[in-house]
Amino acid sequence: MNSSEIDYSPQGFLRPAPRSEPAADSVTIRRPSARTERVLGSPRKTPHNGTSGTDTSPARPGSTDAITADPVAPGADIFWNTSLRLVLEVLDQRRNPLHLRALLSPTVLEIVRRLAISDNPTRDLGAARTHRTHVHAASPSAAEVCATYRRGNRTFAIAARIENTNAEGWMITALHVV
Fold it and tell me: pTM for this one?
């Protein structure tokens, strides 16, 4: 079957959403906790230098034991969380892969499209739900990201590289689904 024979109409490709999802009006958005912000790369506010000694004096400026955290590229975490959910919807056959053209490079879009039409026995475990996400800034305009997601009682992983092009904004340029 080639790409011109695939029926992307709602009747031929998409599955109905599972009943396990909450109603749209019951979802609340919470601000990230202090722990989440620290995991995402902001520096510590305490003088702790990472050693187990009892010295609590701040590290000397310019010394190698100063705490340096890679700053997360602005917007990378929000983009990754949003695009991850959209990719999982495509893999669950609840969203048309063509909806992600603005978020995925052409190569990654083709990979996601092929994964979505493949016979994947893990779909029988239920809808994919994100569990944990991680963002590590590789440069000011790129980030290495990963996440775990669950289907039923099993946990799976996904990793990607996202890059910020000034013209189009953030884009997923590499994707690995485990």
Answer: 0.62
